[in-house]
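Hey, I was hoping to borrow your eyes for a little while. No rush at all, and the record is pasted right below:
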Amino acid sequence: MPLSHSSTSDSNGDDELVETTEPASIDETEKMLSPEKLLKCGDLADVKVSCGERSWDLHKAILCSRCPFFERALVGQFQEARTSHVILRENDPDEVDGVIEYIYTGKVSNHLLKEEDTKAYVKMFELGDFFDLPGLRQQALQLLDDDFLTGLVEDVCRHREWDTPCKCRRRDVFKCHPDKLDGLRHVVDFAYGGGGVAEVQLDTYEPVRRLLRQFVARTFMQVVRLPTFWALLREVPALGADLFLSMAEGDEELGAHLLADPPYSCRSCGQCLHSFKDTHAEADNLLEPSLEQRHDQEVSDNSESSNMA
């Protein structure tokens, strides 16, 4: 802390230098007392949080002002309020460490992303729900969308898992990577109560369901043609019912994508089949003769039979 000098006069009139300590500036004080620094050093801690074999010396003011879960535990008639000690028996210590870091810094640490693929985002959402942290739930949804669903949308829209005949008469077949489909299945089970979960609170998991409906819409409804997705709909019928009800109730986003034609081009020859309807029209022309063509063929066959007779 900076030192300064001031002068005083003694009884003889001589000036005497006195060394004084200046107060820290506002910026320096904020830096010394920042939540991130307090978390690391543990200074001024007045609350202990324990999980498994780990414990953290924390600050009641920060926890209660930023996390309703800790506010309910530490302000009221609970034992934790009297002892200033919160014991978390049902959580993983690494996950609790990640939650505490998020409360203090607002950042998502690697402790919350240790699971592979979509399991990490689902677990993050569950922790956000358990500790009543809307911001953490929102970040989980954002990561799920940005890091997983957006890539899967691009895969589905770029290729398709059914025959796509074009002028080159090649069969363009899309096979989605099994890991991606397993990741999608995990999210669907979480959102709709599959995987052994008996009941799912609609209000709590509606944001995840909404994200899944948006995913289906963003594929121009093409994902429903994947056999693997059909199998998922059979296993979790609530997903199919949710999609149908959303369209029936006038969901503008789902309705717009349902009526739209996704762009598509053949991967083999590059021919642009500008829309889903164009693709099927092209397939019909190549593989199935029209009624007029069949009539002409029948006339020709009858004529040849008459000539032979």
Remarks:
- Strands lie at 3-9, 15-21, 47-51, 54-58, 85-87, 264-265, 272-273.
